[in-house]
Amino acid sequence: MKTIIVYYSLEENTHYAAQKIAENIGADLLRLYPKKAYPNSGFKKFFWGGKSAVMAQKPALEPYVFRGDAYERVIIGFPVWASNVAPPLRTFLSENDLSGKHLAAFACQSGSGAQKAFAKLAAAAGVEKLENELILIDPKTKPSKENESNLKDFCDKLCAAQ
Fold first, then answer.
1. pTM of the entire predicted model
2. Where residue 1 falls among pLDDT bands split at 50, 70, 90?
3. Measuring CA to CA, which residue among 140, 75, 137, 82 is closest to residue 108?
4. Which of 19, 95, 133, 136 is most solvent-facing, going by the fewest CB within 10 Å?
5. How far apart are the first and last CA of the chain?
6. How far is CA 153 from each of CA 20, 21, 86, 110, 140, rounded to the nearest angstrom?
7. What is the pLDDT of residues 81-107, one digit of tens each?
């Protein structure tokens, strides 16, 4: 099944996970960049990122190429912000029709909220349930055996579903 991983990463945890998944399942990668970058440290990071996520904002993105007809499966990767999908993914979902695609997702978080974010992602994508979900705790900045094991299980399930 031809697969692409579409993701946004602020602190490189999601980028790290996207690369690992792509290597394991042979997927293409599409990293999204907002035209106006979010602050990546201090109070401003939490204030602007959290506000943008809670308000369900859809920031303008740098130009990207996504040929949806070339893929049967789309995996969405994002950092969890205030129990929400990071806003650049909202923009992507509003700009692209993913109907008829197999959708899976992975979320990187420091605390909690990924399960709520997955439900919001499914609703935004117009699907009842995601094919597969993975929650990682800061996989690049705080590597752990649990993250690696969960990542492997996620990839194995995706490969078995092909």
1. 0.91
2. confident
3. 137
4. 95
5. 6
6. 12, 11, 24, 20, 18
7. 888 899 999 999 999 999 899 999 999
